């Protein structure tokens, strides 16, 4: 993944200044726009969320927007454009002028959809900043016979192709690590996909499937309510809020995964515009208000640079691509 930075702005567009009466001698000459004078931004910016309102992506956008307004000095209008696993919003973005006045929030779909016959290409976007990460966990219903991750794996070995897990969709950010689990543990599992994380986790809590792989923050309401419990975290280290829950890596399965959200603009957006937006996003994401809201939702605030986000996307592309190919038998 690269960040394609353009070295010059578009040629200035001149407009005729007319009046109903005689032209006023002073100030009638046409001139360059404010943006072309290096005064970006000079009008409202639209921040598109490609998912329904109420999720972590929508929350982060609506928490970030007021802080961006403080940094940029213009209104930042959050707009939801959900549909087709985020591709509606992603495709809409590629049709916009690369002028910095439209941003879209992205998640793992920005790399996974290209492997699932969607016309989505990460190269069509300039990556501004990763805003947050949502670490994953493996959870079961409260009365599950699985007391440990090893219990689950051993049962799957004894009953190949019978142990089930719920996911928020085939090839999704939480279906894909299940492919990694199967490869690392040499087991065969059955995916039961749902339309999003909420019904997927609810199915596991009800015992309709054997376990759930999803974001810890999404599972936590059922865990706190006594409906579910964690077997393992898909993190490098234990989480501060869950000190008694081991990582899968500790248990011999070196598997990590997290959801994420970040902001992008169309490929070809001028370098100075990209830098202005990225600097404002990083400052806003480091504010106490943003951090406190994100952490209260069991998410990890980030606020990375364009270079860091671009490298992260490259790594996610390689990782999720490999998992999806495993699921496809390649």
UniProtKB/TrEMBL annotation:
It comes from the Bacteria. Pfam families: TctC. PROSITE patterns: PROKAR_LIPOPROTEIN. Residues 1-29 form the signal peptide. SUPFAM superfamilies: Periplasmic binding protein-like II (SSF53850). Keywords: Receptor, Signal. Belongs to the UPF0065 (bug) family. PANTHER family: BLR1237 PROTEIN, TRICARBOXYLATE-BINDING PROTEIN. This is Tripartite-type tricarboxylate transporter receptor subunit TctC. It comes from Enteractinococcus coprophilus.
